[in-house]
Amino acid sequence: MRIDLHCHSTASDGTDTPAELVRNAAAAGLDVVAVTDHDTTRGYAEAVAALPEGLTLVTGAELSCRVDGVSLHMLAYLFDPEEPALLAERELVRDDRVPRAQAMIAKLNALDVPVTWEQVERIARGGSVGRPHVASALVELGVVPTVDDAFTEKWLADGGRAFVEKHETDPFEAIRLVKGAGGVCVFAHPAAAKRGRTVPESTIAALAAAGLDGIEVDHMDHDEATRARLRGLAAELGLLVTGSSDYHGSRKTVALGAYTTDPEVYGEITRRATGAFPVPGAGGA
After folding, report:
1. Residue-wise pLDDT tens digits, 112-142
2. Sorting pLDDT into bands at 50, 70 and 90, what band is 283?
3. Phi and psi dihedrals of 62, rounded to 5?
4. All residues at 6 or more sequence positions from 264 whose CB lies less than 8 Å from its CB, including other chains
């Protein structure tokens, strides 16, 4: 089985619609794909309706978190999307995205970059607005050659000239909320240092003690030495190890299925989840 547990659609900052995402996942030879848009479940219905026969959909979300001044992302799988406490927290995070993006645009304008809210809104195509959409606007304007080049201290990286903080959930609270909604928690790309500051291993240990289920080890932002170190840490802490593409369509160069999760780990994730269950494809439209 080929299992990719971290993918984004136009419901957040991917460029494939949810329907396109599942069809492209099937075409890429995947058996299981997870839709994990940022702080939203809005892509679920479309993905389920279009799910091809032979492909299983795992519903999830990538939750925006912050601890000790460091941003991190928590992949939540198979939780009840209508559970009130987690739903309220996701809405709180999402509602802060628009004023945050507008504040980043104001900072860029002050740096003589003529980006506009209308441009960013068009790029977002109705999805939850985030930094990648602002970064894409900088690419359109010729300010930077690629989206990755916008995530530097010169522009949009944490602490950068145009960076603006947003509401982010405490990861310990995120674990509590996800567990309360019957879900499973995996720390996304925990050592992706090129994205900004990362948390120390002591924090990962504390998260494990609080109920964290796993860490995403096989990821494009982790080199081989980092993966080996994280595997050792996971073994020491009793955490599951996952691998995922973190696919964003054309917004990033990584392909669907570039990194995958072991079927036994996937099985354990589904066994632990009680809020929702994987959806088998029945030949969608």
Report:
1. 999 999 999 999 888 778 899 999 999 999 9
2. low
3. -105, 110
4. none
